[in-house]
Amino acid sequence: MKKQTKVIKIQSERTHNRENSTPLYLTSSFCYEDAAQGKDLFDGTLEGNIYSRFSNPTVQEFVDKICVLEELEDGVATGTGMAAVFACFGAHLSAGDHLVSSKALFGSSHQIITQILVKWGISYTYVDASAPESEWEAAIQENTKMIYLETPSNPGLEIVDLEMIGRLAKKHDLIYCIDNCFATPVLQVPSQFGANLVLHSATKFMDGQGRVLGGVVVGTKELIEKVRFFTRQTGPALSPFNAWVLSKSLETLHLRMERHCSNALALATALEKVEGVKQVNYPFLDSFKQKDLAKKQMSAGGALVTFELEGGFERVVRFTKLLTIPSLTSNLGDSRTTITNPFTTTHSKVPTEDKYALGIYEGSMRVSVGLEDIDDLIQDFTQAILGSK
């Protein structure tokens, strides 16, 4: 069976009630038949559920689906995407270790690396996403333990060469960790390029309708075992209800991503022709500087479009007041088109000079293109841009 079929078919074992749709195990704990069974469950002699902080059938169903999509062996679900990021770091990095990361990161990931990990004696080196292999390799030190990156990045949509990084990670025996949130496993499968840990904010496209929070990490059994220990002790558990929503949403992920991508490409193409737009970034645009690399490792360009408005933040305010279709919110991956100004929202805590270095300016806009009629979206964006002069 192909992945889309497996994602629909995978579900918790059918109960005596003979249900067709998977049940929701909304319980904090699970019972033992007797004290001996409890002992066996806790010492690992017997596999089974004990407590929903670290095991639950509904949550496991969601994880199993992501393992299939990302072509990896095992996984752990978390309460949010940032909990998944932190779990990867916390499980595998120790005082004295060094991390190599792409410079283009989500604001909170940047804060963890630069403000939290350093307090624990974990150092880091940032590398430009488009840097050549020699520059990436020069950043690797004797104590480097992990390479971490987002591709496409948030919000600049910079692309990192996954095959090249996989080659370096294997050569230097490094943990190769990818945030695959923007592309989703529908468009890009990092394990095919050597990644052995892949994480997601499931809040985004995996939910697809802006309803619940969630995160997930999948990888090799050896690496996930350490993540599982970390999350079991520290408790960033995904709620069974959220897992149930996410698991059901995965059944339509392939269909939704097709529409997201076709709408995004059409909107990006239209925006390039609108007066007052300085720069449009979209991985599959002919004008995108990394288009060839994007097409090499992605099957489509994704749902995210970024552009810069002339006139700075004052024009951004006027522009957003004129929009009638998009939701003004920092979330993304919704069936509704969403838009935000990353300079003042998602990356507001990043120093200004660093934002400029990443191509994030006062007039920058990040659009998560939804499932609406594309003609309506193009018309709405065009009138709001022209009207905001």
Protein described:
The chain starts with a helix and ends with a helix. The chain has helices at 3-9, 35-43, 57-70, 81-92, 107-116, 133-139, 162-171, 184-187, 221-234, 240-249, 253-271, 291-297, 312-322, 352-357, 374-387, and strands spanning 74-78, 98-102, 123-127, 144-150, 175-179, 197-201, 215-219, 277-281, 304-309, 327-328, 338-340, 364-368. It is built from 15 helices and twelve strands. The longest helix is centred in the last third of the chain and has 19 residues, at 253-271. 40% of the residues lie in helices and 15% in strands. α1 (3-9) runs antiparallel to α3 (57-70), α3 (57-70) runs parallel beside α10 (240-249) and α13 crosses α15 (374-387). The protein is globular. The strands form two sheets. Strands 1-7-6-5-4-2-3 form a seven-stranded mixed sheet, with helices on both faces. The chain has a five-stranded mixed sheet with strand order 8-9-12-11-10. With 389 residues, it is an alpha/beta fold.
